[in-house]
Amino acid sequence: MSELIQVLTQDGSYSLRSILFQENFHSLKGALEETKIKFTNPSGLNRFKNKSINVLDICFGLGYNSASLFSDLIKQNSLLNWYALEIDKKPLEYSLNNNSFLELWHPKVSKIFDFLYQKNQFEDQFFKCKILWGEAREQINNIPPEIKFDLIYLDGFSPQKCPQVWTVEFLSKVTKTLNPKGYLITYSSSAAVRMTLRNLGLELFSIKSNFNSQNKWSQGTVAIANFSKNKFQNNLYFDKLSLMEEEHLLTKASIPYRDPDLNSKAEDIIKERLKEQFLSNMSSTKKWREKWK
Ligand SMILES: C[S@@+](CC[C@H](N)C(=O)[O-])C[C@H]1O[C@@H](n2cnc3c(N)ncnc32)[C@H](O)[C@@H]1O
Predict the structure, then answer these.
(1) How many domains does the chain divide into?
(2) 91 lines ligand 1 (CB under 6 A)
(3) Residue range of the domain that includes 95
(4) Ligand 1 pocket check for 59: Cβ under 6 Å
(5) CATH number of domain containing 242
(6) How many helices (H) and strands (E) does the chain have?
(7) Protein residue with its CA nearest to atom 25 in ligand 1
């Protein structure tokens, strides 16, 4: 479907660039680092040591987020029920042919990935995994409705490039599959995405940078339906939104992406949002940017 170019990122891990979407799969700073900081660390996987966990990976791509998840869950004997949504098989094919990717993980990961590629599923006494190939907006309907996810990873291309997976209507479907105590995790700190998740009833948190990083910007968002506030104080990886981030949500940038029948083209979703922003009385994002430099 797509044309993909190999990219070596600064932490030595490989990623891809999509010509179709005109965007890289990962930050140039490091694909592996991004997975750890933005997805694995905030997941709090030790909560599921020797227990069962349901996970949905939306936009599986090369599989960094799930490979990291699988490796950690294997080491702590968790029982996993996993689903993934992805439109293109080529990134997985690339991962299976790239030893420096496979060597990053527990050896069982390459066996699981091989099964996902050949048979779309994998099952043993610990893991039950199924990948649904195709448009995420359609394939999400093929997840059995009784399954509620403890973790949802949302790793689509940016809202400006791939708005289809960030709309009110799609995120409403996604959040219906979230267990009340489950975490929806994304690298995106877009005001539109955050406001959509808040309006869907989720509590928002901002993913922190790692300690050594000079970059103090948010690394993404964790959204939780039913969060126990007393556990929050000890959380190393995410925090309440700062005043700056809250004020961002009061600007026109927070106007959501909409896809009423879940079949709009990307350019139409963007165009309709621009119209809505133009007509809105909300404060300008430019002023917010100037205030917070
Ligand atoms: C940023 S990359 C994902 C990176 C990935 N999580 C990884 O670890 O490599 C975005 C992925 O979304 C997929 N994608 C784009 N539009 C999609 C759609 N409408 N439905 C499902 N997958 C989609 C692309 O094929 C691509 O693999």
Answers:
(1) 1
(2) yes
(3) 32-292
(4) yes
(5) 3.40.50.150
(6) 13, 12
(7) 88
